[in-house]
Design goal:
The chain is an alpha+beta fold. It contains two helices and five strands, in the order ββββαβα. A five-stranded mixed β-sheet has the order 1-2-3-4-5.
Length: 94
């Protein structure tokens, strides 16, 4: 089972994906204001692709943004593709 951990500093943040104690991916974001997250990079490590890990990290970011009344700017091509594909995430897009 994949677990997602979140870390945040004053200006940026990181969602890490873990499987059986091994880090298998990461999604980074910048936070230029308290209400805005810029997802700038999503990466799944070699050998772990195709398991939906990137999606889980981006959706963890969406849940976090909604819970903290933040808007997301998806600069990362994967995050942009996932979040702009349907109206389901329209409420959190900046």
């Amino acid at each position: 089972m994949i677990t997602i951990q979140h870390k945040e500093t004053d200006r940026n943040g990181l969602f890490e994906a873990w499987l059986d104690g091994v880090q298998v991916g990461e999604m980074t974001y910048q936070r230029p204001t308290l209400q805005r997250m810029i997802i700038d990079h999503t990466r799944v490590y070699e050998g772990f692709e195709g398991r939906g890990i990137a999606r889980q990290m981006v959706l963890a970011g969406v849940e976090f943004a909604r819970a903290h009344n933040r808007q997301i700017v998806p600069v990362c091509s994967y995050a942009r593709s996932l979040l702009t594909r349907t109206d389901e995430y329209k409420d959190i897009l900046a």
